[in-house]
Design goal:
- By secondary structure, this protein is mainly alpha-helical.
- The chain is 60% helix and 0% strand.
- The chain is built from four helices and no strands.
Length: 90
């Protein structure tokens, strides 16, 4: 799972004034990725790079579009990125 520091580097953010907001977006991004994959990602060792990048992408999208985020579009995008890792059923 990406750390807040990794997310800040990915987003080009300095300082800690947005850490709480980024942490909330990180939790939301994790939930979206897990919903798409149909399994938990917290304890994947090693975590596939594509999952880590999907989480960072989702955080970046939520951070940049916090007022107007289209969650359906975000979920569809994440589903496309992770389609090859998605569990067939519940």
């Amino acid at each position: 799972m990406p750390t807040i520091e990794e997310i800040k580097i990915y987003l080009g953010i300095d300082g800690s004034h947005n850490d709480s907001l980024i942490a909330d977006f990180l939790k939301t991004a994790k939930e979206i990725v897990e919903k798409v994959l149909r399994y938990e990602i917290e304890n994947l060792e090693p975590m596939p790079v594509v999952i880590k990048e999907a989480v960072k992408y989702a955080v970046g999208y939520l951070y940049s579009n916090r007022e107007t985020a289209d969650f359906l579009m975000l979920e569809k995008t994440i589903a496309i990125i992770l389609s090859h890792l998605r569990k067939e059923g519940f």
